[in-house]
């Protein structure tokens, strides 16, 4: 069987579980063959050995079970960084880059103290560390398995100046000095949301997805507690569901934040809300 033939087969079989079956088929083939996607296009008549066909079938079976492609491949690109991905943490989504972009635009001091709550795979903390090596970044997670994955990603990317703390939300950094920026992509899906049963979510850690009957429990807690952990003029940035923007802005305003606003993701949906704590003299 040639590359062209197997690529066509894979594309057809992936169509029921993927919005981009052709791309996923190319990625699976490239993974098994150890070649870039451009090589597949250049050598469509290349014959595939049985060993490669068997390996491709194994990956295809995992994907057809509903496993996220990032779990099948064991990695996902985020902010140009290749992050290891598996069932220990959420797969990093492109939407979260909206939060990273906003954080990098903020007028923070050169050695800003930055806290990433619920870091998961380490995506936000490591992206910020790659762009701002002088920032003092700490990342927390209540799940030791997630934290282990974040450690592994930091080591592989040579971003080991990021500090990791185990614990729930602000308990993980109790007694530490105030922060110039606190950011988080917390759980924000309602516990009975039907999306939890599809789109690969059954294979991701539920505790990192679900937050009470409205999906707002953790967002409420972080918004209420953050002012006690921020410097005067410090910022809080929160990722949330695309319909939760009004509720999160209200939470931030109720917590005393000013300059409250929301940024949209790549699809134009409200995805990250944030605000600044008033200066000491305000």
Explain this structure to me?
With 282 residues, the chain is of the alpha/beta class. The chain folds into 2 domains: 3-65, Helicase, Ruva Protein, domain 3; 87-276, Vaccinia Virus protein VP39 (Rossmann fold), CATH 3.40.50.150. The protein has helices at 3-14, 21-33, 37-42, 50-64, 69-73, 97-105, 123-131, 144-156, 217-225, 245-254, and strands at 75-78, 81-84, 113-117, 136-141, 163-166, 179-184, 230-239, 258-264, 270-276. The strands form 2 sheets. A 7-stranded mixed β-sheet has the order 5-4-3-6-7-9-8, sandwiched between helices. It has a two-stranded antiparallel ribbon with strand order 1-2. The radius of gyration is 21 Å and the shape is elongated.
Essential attributes:
282 residues, alpha/beta, Helicase, Ruva Protein, domain 3, Rossmann fold, 7-stranded mixed β-sheet, two-stranded antiparallel ribbon, 9 strands, 19% strand, elongated
Write the layout of secondary structure elements.
Layout: H1 3-14, H2 21-33, H3 37-42, H4 50-64, H5 69-73, E1 75-78, E2 81-84, H6 97-105, E3 113-117, H7 123-131, E4 136-141, H8 144-156, E5 163-166, E6 179-184, H9 217-225, E7 230-239, H10 245-254, E8 258-264, E9 270-276
Parallel strand pairs: 3-4, 3-6, 4-5, 6-7
Antiparallel strand pairs: 1-2, 7-9, 8-9
Helix pairs in contact: 1-2, 2-4, 6-7, 9-10
